[in-house]
Amino acid sequence: MKRLVLLRHGRTEWNDSGRAQGHADIPLDAQGQLQSKAVAPALAAFAPVAMWTSDLSRAAQTAGFVAAEAGLEPVLDPRLREFDIGPNRTGLTSDEYAAAHPVEHAALLAGNDADIPGRETDDDVLARFLPALGEYADALGEGETGIVVSHGAALRVAVPAFLDLPDPGEALGVLANCGWIELEHSASTWTGGVERWRLMAWNRVVA
Prior knowledge:
Blueprint: E1 2-8, H1 13-17, H2 30-44, E2 50-53, H3 57-70, E3 75-76, H4 94-100, H5 102-109, H6 122-139, E4 145-150, H7 152-162, E5 180-186, E6 196-204
Parallel strand pairs: 1-4, 2-3, 2-4
Antiparallel strand pairs: 1-5, 5-6
Helix pairs in contact: 2-3, 4-5, 6-7
């Protein structure tokens, strides 16, 4: 068995005020730092051998707290970034975006991401994110655990695709700040003894 633990970053000021971040490099706020400190021992308890993180500050700072607890040096990987949401959406609340850019907002609600200037589609994110996960999975040996620190929307798209699951739609809830996902690669009677990656936990948080 080997394991991947995928962690969403801690809270930022823009998270708290409902402002879309995308690739904007917003650091953790005080609450986000406390969340990251709190989750660090829980993830260190998995005895990880490697850690990879988005290079955006909010993820890299979160990874730093966990890495210090686990005795690791996180590897920055820009492939783990959040969706690029385009220049017109960045920094705005949903209401502000609807008022300032009603055509784009309507396209977003309709799921027509390709019609929004500068916005990545699900396929765009998967094209960079899935190869990264595949490399991390291959780097782990039997019995080893790796930690990935990334972003909520990107993880909600990438994890089902990595597991080759049907589109879950809204079946998977929004990841909390410093909520994590556990994936295990192991055999199961349900798979006829064939080893594969399976979802073991979604949105676990420190109590």
